[in-house]
Amino acid sequence: MTTAVYPGSFDPITKGHLHILKVGSEVFDKVIIAVANNPQKKGFLSVEERVSLIKESITHLDNVEVDSFEGLTIEYAKKAGAKVLIRGLRAVSDFEYELQLSQANSALCENIRTVFLTTKPKYNFISSSTIKEIYNNGGDISKFVPQPVYDFLMKRR
Ligand code: ADP
Fold first, then answer.
1. E-only strand ranges, the chain
2. Parent domain of 83
3. What is the spatial distance between Cα 15 and Cα 112, in angstroms, rounded to a whole number?
4. Which residue from 59, 98, 136, 137 puts its CA 20 to 30 A from 29's CA?
């Protein structure tokens, strides 16, 4: 049984993230999507809000669990019994940072491998920061985020 952890900020979760998660859930036996809690960084949404919006957005995925963690991702993955870290790649610009991160993680624990997945081309340009920018300026984010995130943000506006 192979467990994979998909770590990230997910502030908020987007359709790009969701597609990566769906592919991950088809490839691995179990996927834990884990929201990184960085107390130094004030997020757009609280970690609790992010976790609960992810839960509402993944009811169609049976083998996916949601969690949050503080500290090193690799330590969290070890405790969770994961053999794989999933990261998403959008463009060449993601590559350098992600490569460095995966090499640092494998230097810390060589038994946990990073696997890169890509999303559908139509979700490729989406990032949480682009969504926040569009939302903060009154634009329509309905095409980019799962329905529960859309409903939550519309209420908040
Ligand atoms: P982080 O702060 O760790 O980069 P994010 O929530 O921004 O967290 O992203 C988590 C992961 O999902 C990263 O590997 C990122 O490259 C990937 N990702 C984000 N948006 C997309 C997208 N639209 N398509 C594919 N991968 C994505």
1. 3-8, 30-36, 64-69, 84-89, 113-118
2. 3-156
3. 26
4. 98
Tokens representing residue 25 in the block: 């859930």
pTM passes above 0.90? yes
Q: 63: domain CATH number? A: 3.40.50.620
Residue 148 identity: P
**Diameter of the chain measured on Cα atoms:** 45
Ligand 1 and 148: CB distance under 6 A: no
Give 72-92 pLDDT, tens digit per residue: 999 999 999 999 999 999 999
Whether 65 shows a pLDDT value over 90: the answer reads yes
State what percent of residues in the chain have pLDDT above 90: 96
To the query of whether residue 90 is one of the catalytic residues in this protein, the response is: yes
Residue appearing with tokens 């990566």: 20
Sheet with strand 3-8: strands edge to edge? 64-69, 30-36, 3-8, 84-89, 113-118
CA of 75 relative to ligand 1 center, distance in Å: 20
Between CA 48 and CA 67 the distance in angstroms is 10
- Looking at the 3D structure of the chain, how many domains does it have? 1
pLDDT at 130: 97
Rounded mean pLDDT, 96-108: 97
Instruction: Note whether 98 and 116 are within 8 A (CB).
Output: yes
